[in-house]
Amino acid sequence: MVSIVVGGHYGDEGKGKIISYLALNDKPELIARAGVGPNAGHTVYKDGKKYGLRMIPCGFVNEKSKLAVGTGVLVDVERFLSEVSDTQTKGRIFVDKRCGVIEQAHKDLDKGEGSKKIGTTGSGCGPANAARVNRTLRRAMDFPELKDYLADVPQMVNEAVDSGGNVLVEASQGFGLSLYYGNYPYVTSKDTSASSAAADVGLGPTKIDDVIAVFKAYMSRVGEDPFVHYLTDAEVGKNKVWSRLLKAAEDSGVQGETANQKIAFYLGEKGTVTGRPRKLADFDYKLARYSAMVNSATTICVTCLDKLYPESSGVRNLKELGSEAAGHIRKIEKEVGVKVKLISTGPNPEDLIDLR
Ligand code: GTP
Ligand code: IMP
Ligand code: MG
Question: If you measure from the C-alpha of residue 346 to the centroid of ligand 1, how many angstroms do you get, rounded to a whole number?
Fold first, then answer.
């Protein structure tokens, strides 16, 4: 059984949290990281400790699962080794020998004017992928520091699937950031859909059973993007849910120039990699529907419901959801046309309604 978790909107949907739940609950034999590279920042909690992971699969929370970084994923060697040490995963984590490696020159280039215009994460991913296309990028097998971790990840993944084990594939970023489908040129350096995630770890289309598209109950975006309609002060004022959050934000004393920024800081919406405040927007149903189509989503997961409706915090049973929160879930399901089977009501793995 192979499940792929993808970002449905603009990244930071809370994939880290969902993956940690699936890793503990579905007990995958192998968890493989797909996606672009260390531009991603996933937030995961394990034994009360918070991890901001950029290289290691979030599924590391299940200590029995083997972990792998797929062939298509860019590796930042220093970052990888420091996360291995932080998560104590040496011995069960592997990197495909053909992964492209980001070097200092790529990071320097990613701090230049072109990158600033797009608002990249500065992690060197774009320039490294450009070098890969030019066939000048060095690969994991060229770095002695990685020799204890090198493996043939597609071989591992396919052997696990063929022997009947569960395999969980973690994509990163989100559909709206795809090099092909996103708001070009305000996009990342690769496609971010489920098919690319499968290819990243060496799986073909006929091997995939489930595609879980993750959406936040609202939208957030880091980086530049004139095509996203961010909430204005007036729109916040006209909407009951956002007005309530603005009041709570102001009462808590957070700083911010606009209602959007105040609510973002209040909700903890700032970039894991860059620390930039995320810009907030209403749920984009049309984009979500298109994203579910291109991803062939079988399941929708909605996260951060408790941030919009605080009374749903920690709820684990559908019947205990308040009517506003339940109405929001029903509307997403209807507009997107795919069943919402996972609803996240808090940052910890156990804060979840699982309807699968
Ligand atoms: P990307 O790869 O960048 O897309 O990362 P991501 O999708 O894993 O999301 P990220 O961890 O960057 O941001 C999500 C934030 O929301 C983190 O701080 C999570 O701890 C938190 N979070 C996730 N789900 C929930 C939820 O249901 N409720 C609350 N309150 N927080 C959540
Ligand atoms: P890059 O991937 O660093 O080149 O950045 C390109 C665009 O994608 C910028 O708008 C980034 O903010 C955005 N981006 C890249 N990775 C993530 C992510 O993990 N979460 C949210 N936005 C991201
Ligand atoms: Mg993130």
Answer: 9
